[in-house]
Amino acid sequence: MRAMSIFRRGTPWLTAVVVATSLGCGTSSRPNGSSGQSGQRGQSGQGGGRSSGSAGTTGSAGGGAGGSAATSGAAGTGDAGAGVDGGAAGATADAAADTAADGSDARPDGATGAGCTAPGTICWDFEEGKLPPGWTPYRNEYPTGSLLVDSTRAHHGTYALHAKDFTGGKEGADGGPKHTIRYALPAGFGPVLWGRAFIYMSPATPMSHAGFFNARYPRPNDPVATNTDVSKLDWYEVATSGGNYVSIWHPPEPPGTPEAVQISATPGATGRWACVEWLFDAEDGDAAEAADPRVWLDGVEIAWPMSIVVPTGPRPVHEKAKSFTVLEAGVYLYQGLTTATNWWIDDLGVGKQRIGCD
Q: Are 166 and 340 within 8 A, CB to CB?
């Protein structure tokens, strides 16, 4: 059973998003809350409480179906690199084998990249020219498009993760191409996850819901703290839809709903490398629930002028967490594309404090 998503019903609601607001550039690794629109519920930063009158953060977009295990794929034609759909090149050892049990110095072999210096930070620059250690193929759905590490474009160095030539698909259950990889975080990573990636999208931001990163954590009463079973994991997501950035909080899938949807008026950056950062705070200090996601574009925090719940109803309870356990990266679409679209992801990193764009 697939998660239902508003983005499978078209995007007429986007006409309501007419206010393009931006928030100040955040520089602290432990902000005390977002700033911006007054009168809406604030959100805590890492280790902090909610701030009165800060940017509204009730909701997020999308709903993702649990991807099937990758079964087949190709490295692509004419690209220097290694395909990762269905039989990845490179090691697939669990990253936890190379880290401290508490994740205090989480740097598995091959975990390199810009800004990856703080304890508990893991970064990947894909300069191995193949799938980095610890990452394994995950979703490989729809016959068009592929996910590979190649040398066609890089933020720095020679290689990047390339979601190549995604096209086709349709509105509804079949959706569009979905090609992703997964990574098991070190045990005891913790309930606060900062992320950073440089993303190049071309030729345009699709109207389709296009997720490119999510992180999941076990439900509080789940006895298996390190499981990666999507039917037991709450999850945060960063994506674009309707041409703009969106962020999401989901319960486990199936069904993945009700989903909390945050919709921005910030267009997805195209034709250039954009630094996208996110904060998933499933602890949220002394608050009763996990926080809504926060996202930054090139150092400026994105505002969410529109928040909805899908299907329509009460806001879902954002269950708190002890620790994030698994990451997913790549691109997964929930409607079709008529124009072949490419994404490159480079200098991806996650950590317990802000990594930054430098």
A: yes
